[in-house]
Amino acid sequence: MLPDFEAMTRVPLVGVRDPAIQRGVDTHHRTDEVFHRARGFVSLSAWALGALTDAGVRRGTARAVGHIASEMFLDGHLVEQSSEVEGYLAALSVETADVLDWEDGGNAFGVLRGRLHRWGAPKDYADPGFVLARLGDALRSRPALAIAEADEPRVAKCLPELQKRVRKQAPELLDELQDALGCGT
Predict the structure, then answer these.
(1) Which end of the chain has the smaller Cβ count within 10 Å, N or C?
(2) How far is residue 15's CA from residue 171's CA, in Å, rounded to a whole number?
(3) Residue ranges covered by each domain of the chain
(4) Residues 41-95: pLDDT tens digits?
(5) Is the pLDDT of residue 184 over 70?
(6) Are 43 and 169 spatial neighbours (Cβ–Cβ below 8 Å)?
(7) Rounded to two decimals, what is the model's pTM?
(8) Could you read off the pLDDT of 143-161 as tens digits, one per residue?
(9) How far is CA 52 from CA 128, 147, 152, in A?
């Protein structure tokens, strides 16, 4: 999860001194690479891009929303379907101060980790309204991708259908991902 946390804090992780954690970071990057090329993910992102641009949403925004919302809805689906939530919460509790070097000394990561631990399992990623709000937060600082106020209702209207499609395609997408990573089912 560290690469995602690095993106969320916008603070570079400049060193990892634990081989197991480094393997996890490497696995995360490999999984992202495979996932973003997976037929199921490409299909979901393409559907959202088409639906949103047909509704009048700018192409950059539509592309970003399709990508990020598909991932969030998949996370929401996994939380609903998984018994692995305790592992996620346990991982947030692992003390890493002696093995991770953050550009800011770990301050932003500490704040984020505390917030995520208090929040618990990200069940809210199964709520289209919550996903819309997080998309707004994530894209706000990127003018070419930000959701314009006039586009919010169009994006909101699209999200429940995208979520339905993510849930439907999730088993096949996860099988494809496991096969590509050599994990099998």
Answers:
(1) C
(2) 35
(3) 2-179
(4) 999 999 999 999 999 999 999 999 999 999 999 999 999 887 778 888 888 888 8
(5) no
(6) yes
(7) 0.88
(8) 999 999 999 999 999 999 9
(9) 15, 11, 11
Spell out the residues 6+ positions from residue 18 whose beta carbon is closer than 8 angstroms to its own: 96, 99, 100
How many alpha carbons fall within 13 Å on the CB side of residue 69?
Answer: 36
In this predicted model, what pLDDT tens digit does every residue of 7-26 receive, in sequence order? Answer: 989 999 999 999 999 999 99
| Neighbouring-strand partners of residue 101 | 15
With contact defined as beta carbons under 8 Å apart, do 141 and 93 qualify? no
- Looking at every residue in the chain, the average pLDDT score rounds to 93
pLDDT attached to residue 52: 98
The secondary structure of the chain, three-state, reads: CHHHHHHHHCCCEEEECCHHHHHHHHHHHHHHHHHHHCHHHHHHHHHHHHHHHHCCCCHHHHHHHHHHHHHHHHHHHHHHHCCCHHHHHHHHHCCCCCCEEECCCCHHHHHHHHHHHHHCCCHHHHCHHHHHHHHHHHHCCCCCCCCCHHHHHHHHHHHHHHHHHHHHHHHHHHHHHHHHHCCCC
Residue with tokens 């946390």: 5
End-to-end CA distance of the chain: 22
